[in-house]
Write a structure and sequence with these properties.
The structure is a single chain. With 424 residues, the chain is an alpha+beta fold. The protein contains twelve helices and seven strands. Strands 4-5-7-3-6 form a five-stranded mixed beta sheet. β4 (215-227) and β5 form a beta hairpin.
Length: 424
């Protein structure tokens, strides 16, 4: 069940006029949708307050006046029916009369057309005769155009009202319907640029934002590469600017031409439906607020006033939330967002390598020989360590085994010796 169907079914549900699956769907939607639940609770509060109002006694002449009004209403209905019946008769006679006039006019046009065709077979006479024929032709065209216009349907008139044509410098200009004009779209663009001087690019972007009536939302930068000995410090960063939407295309082109464009992403978000729904909620809450204030003015019980005050505070809180949403959307719609990532690049000059002289070559060869000797000794030491360590470990294991098994061997030998002595 949608929210619109839920709103239509609220009153029948309270009156107990729905049951079965529809009632289950209503209750399930009531558990899920928070907004609909608030509207339902507000409606119940209003109904309870209205039902709690004291009944007033009807005046003594109320029944007499009511019967007179009912009698007068029935008499008016009877007169209207009689008038409508006579009107149908008159309209039928008028239709027949108009039909006869149209047929007579058509026969007259056919006769004039035949006479004009016969006269056109003869050589043309005086100018007055020719003008007469042309006048008849113009009259026929005008009558046919009038008849064509008379059979236009109301649907055609509505379509003509929606699309108005006006002559301009380029011919016909079509005015689009309000549904197209009032669309709420948020435009945003992200782009990555490589520039030669980072600070100049940032300054230029700030000037563009200020000159176009926008502003800088935020910016950041850092050094991603540095060579102090060559005084090279390359920066990288980003800047976010807000530009009026009517200058969106112009600013986008200017920013793209500031450097080497690496990446660009354009996004448009249509929030028309959410915008209209939020506006309708604001109107409903304002009506409910006025109604609650009116009921509070008539309430006498403290408990009722407390409940109404709580509901009024909730309504005002929701109003502030929805109004802030509308304000935020208006800001996003009227000002498009540009997020520009900048990276400073510079052509690095290669280091020139000079050819070494004799002393440099001798020194390099001597260092190389020393390094080779050191490398050989290191390899020999590694090989000895590889061979000696397992040998040492084996000796340690044998020593431990000897120390452990030596007492056992002595005991066994002693027992064998005693056994021999006893046997002898």
């Amino acid at each position: 069940m949608s929210c619109e169907q839920f709103r239509e079914a609220m009153s029948p549900y309270i009156d107990g006029m729905i049951a079965g699956d529809e009632k289950m769907e209503f209750e399930d939607h009531l558990k899920i949708c928070h907004d609909c639940k608030e509207e339902f609770e507000a409606l119940k509060i209003i109904i309870d307050e209205v039902q709690g109002l004291p009944e007033e006694k009807l005046p003594d002449y109320y029944h007499r006046d009511l019967m007179l009004k009912l009698y007068k209403s029935n008499e008016d209905k009877f007169n209207k029916k009689r008038f409508y019946g006579n009107w149908k008769v008159f309209s039928g006679l008028a239709a027949v009369f108009i039909f006869l006039i149209v047929i007579a006019g058509s026969l007259g046009r056919i006769t004039v057309y035949d006479e004009a065709r016969k006269e056109s077979e003869f050589p043309r006479g005086t100018a007055g005769h020719t003008n007469g024929i042309l006048a008849n032709d113009d009259t026929m065209k005008e009558e046919m155009e009038i008849q064509d216009m008379a059979v236009e349907t109301p649907q055609m008139n509505i379509e003509l009202d929606l699309v108005k044509e006006s002559e301009g410098s380029r011919g016909i200009t079509k005015v689009r319907s309000p549904e197209v004009i009032n669309r709420k779209i948020i435009y945003s663009t992200m782009m990555s640029l490589e520039v030669e001087v980072f600070d100049n690019a940032i300054r230029q972007i700030r000037d563009i934002a200020e000159q176009s009536g926008g502003y800088v939302e935020n910016s950041s930068s850092y050094i991603y590469h540095s060579e102090p000995e060559r005084e090279i410090y390359l920066k990288q960063g980003s800047i976010v600017i807000r530009i009026p939407v009517d200058k969106y295309g112009e600013i986008q082109t200017r920013l793209s031409n500031m450097g080497h464009l690496i990446h660009q992403e354009e996004t448009s978000t249509n929030v028309t439906e959410e915008y209209i729904e939020t506006e309708s909620r604001i109107r409903m809450l304002e009506v409910e607020q006025d109604r609650l204030l009116e009921i509070m003015g008539r309430a006498d019980k403290v408990e009722d006033l407390i409940k109404l005050e709580e509901r009024l505070n909730q309504v005002r809180t929701d109003l502030e939330i929805y109004k802030s949403k509308i304000k935020n959307w208006d800001q996003l719609i009227s000002f498009s967002t540009f997020t520009i990532d900048l990276r400073e690049v510079k052509e690095i000059e290669p280091i020139k390598i000079t050819s070494p002289n004799l002393s440099t070559k001798i020194k390099s060869s001597f260092n190389k020989s020393l390094n080779d000797i050191r490398r050989e000794f290191e390899e020999i030491a590694i090989l000895m360590a590889y061979m000696v360590i397992p040998f040492i470990l084996m000796i340690i294991v044998l020593a431990i085994a000897f120390l452990v098994f030596k007492p056992l061997v002595k005991i066994i030998i002693r027992k064998i010796k005693n056994w021999r002595d006893k046997k002898l």
